[in-house]
Design brief:
Helix content: 25-40%
Number of domains: 3
CATH topology of the largest domain: D-Maltodextrin-Binding Protein, domain 2
CATH architecture of the largest domain: 3-Layer(aba) Sandwich
Order of helices and strands: EHEHEEHEEEHHEHEHEEEHEEHE
Strand content: 25-35%
Structural class: alpha/beta
Number of strands: 15
Radius of gyration: 21 Å
């Protein structure tokens, strides 16, 4: 049986992505993103699913940095999940919003609901947890406290909570990208295929004037569409960066080798982090 690891515990959006994308496999939760990635690398599990980017809060830097600096695993697929956040309370909580003293959730989830919290819970303490699932678990175990969690419907179901307020996120068109990591396991993802993508890691030889323009030009004149370009520190010194670039097409034997050769001629280092299908989940 295929084993699939995810950022847990139960009730996280990562678990939601895994449950809806894979049927019949053994699913194992991990407390942190590095633990899940390490488990794939060390052959403890066959497949790992971790968050990469949220439409509102941006890149999950821990995922990117760990894959670049610590463990290199190929990205084999991407799952895009719509995000709906709800305010969850214990079923024995009978008060109203004004009586909630603490709100628990992942930092990204809290940030996605900033306006709601500002308007309706301005005096509540915000407490950050490792995941939305962990926050829901904490609320379920502390029924005597006037607290709430921000999470999804799966979290409410898994931990026996009720949704005091639904859809409290600030922006309706909120999605999170999850990446699927595996060494050699065949994937059978049950979502709608939306296209294919290739992700590159590019390191500049040094901070030269016009270097970024030269990199982008290598893609532009070949009419290759870039959906994302992001810089991250190389951790080798102040001012040293690498770039993560997403190209909206699969790797081929003509355009990508041409880009790679052109950039390497400029002194850049080019690594293919993955070429993979992109799936969209519908709620």
């Amino acid at each position: 049986m295929t084993t699939i690891g995810y950022l847990g515990p139960k009730g996280t959006f990562t678990k939601l992505a895994v449950d809806t994308a894979f049927n019949g496999e053994e699913k194992i939760s991990f407390n942190t993103i590095p633990e899940c990635i390490d488990a794939v690398y060390n052959d403890v599990i066959d497949i790992g699913v971790v968050p990469l980017e949220n439409a509102i809060e941006g890149t999950v830097q821990l995922t990117v940095d760990y894959l670049v600096h610590q463990v290199r695993l190929p990205v084999k697929a991407e799952i895009v999940v719509p995000i709906q956040q709800h305010l969850l309370v214990h079923p024995e909580f009978t008060g109203d919003l004004s009586e909630i003293k603490e709100v628990h959730s992942h930092s990204h989830a809290i940030a996605q609901c900033h306006q709601f919290l500002h308007e309706y819970l301005p005096n509540a303490k915000l407490s950050y947890s490792t995941s939305t699932g962990k926050a829901a678990e904490y609320v379920s175990e502390n029924k005597e406290l006037p607290i709430a969690a921000i999470g999804n419907r799966l979290a409410a179901k898994e931990y026996g909570l009720i949704m005091l307020k639904e859809n409290i996120h600030d922006y309706p068109n909120n999605h999170t990208r999850f990446i699927v990591l595996t060494k050699n396991k065949e994937l059978n993802i049950k979502h709608t295929l939306q296209g294919e993508k290739t992700t590159l890691l590019i390191t500049l030889p040094n901070d030269e004037s016009g270097a970024l323009h030269q990199i982008l030009s290598a893609f532009a004149w070949r009419k290759m569409n870039l959906s994302k370009i992001e810089s991250r520190p190389t951790k080798t010194g102040l001012g040293n960066y690498f770039f993560i670039i997403d190209v909206e097409q699969p790797y081929d034997s003509v355009l990508f080798p041409g880009v790679k050769a052109e950039l390497e001629a400029l002194g850049c280092s080019v690594t293919i982090l993955g070429t993979y299908p992109v799936f969209h989940m519908s709620l």
